[in-house]
Amino acid sequence: MLDISVIIPVYNAAEFLEKSVLSALPFEEVKEVILVEDKSTDNSLGICEKLAVENPKVKLFQHPDKENHGAAASRNLGIEKSSGAFITFLDADDYYLPNRFDAEKIFNDPKIEGVFSAIGIEYLTEKGKAEFQSKFADSSLTTVNYAAEGKEVFRGLLSLTPKTFGTFFHLNALTIRKSAIDKYHLRFNEVLRVHQDSDFIIKLAYHCYLKSGIIDQAVAMRGIHDNNRITKIVRYSPQYNQRQFLFWNSLYEWSKSLPLDSDAAQHIFLQKKAFELTGKSGFSKAICLLNVMLKNPNILRTKYRYTYYHS
Question: Which of 12, 39, 143, 263 could form a disulfide with 118 if both were Cys (CB 3.0 to 4.6 A apart)?
């Protein structure tokens, strides 16, 4: 039997929090549910306190200064406070399904350090649905396109595989050995207010041996509502470009000291450089782009080439 620590960062989630926590508690595999309350302005703290009193599995923490530090710092604090041999995550407005840990039997193989599955989407408000569908494909599952493990996962997430693997799987459907993330000193980048999950997953896929689990049906549900941060960002807006730059720059700084395959290193560098260029304009932008093109013309073949011409 696995002993799992479920880490839930909590910020202004009073409307959804109890359902989220109660979805994790019934599993025998779940040793503890760690709530990290991040100075909410609603009644989230009170609900956290109530859940911790009523359920011995629930453990409540706040940052030492009791201030707001963001989801990355909250997940990192949860990792530090966890006592389970395995770590999972759950957003406070999402919930697990009864099959959440069905794939985790593959941990019988000591080589496997992490397993990931698919999650479903539940539209909680019409406005949230409209914003989500205007920015993302209207798919009932967030998943990858085919089963994979090991290096194929890392390369797939960077779109470097012959077949399209899919560029994302969700933290809600990831289970990882705590010993693995400690061994490789993996934590969420607290500079990133968004995309810290993608940043963590790509780094995890490089260092750890991951394997796909249940990828054709949901093991958790993601709630889409009016206040989802990721849907508020207009694509190719200055805010979008800056956040993409911070994400790719985080991967670039991490990758510089690693023996990555040349195509992976080049991909990360070019994505970083592409969004760096969006912060420039006019003659300065043209000169910088020309300099990059002379060194590596593949910059004009990146997925985000649109941004070179739209500041």
Answer: 143
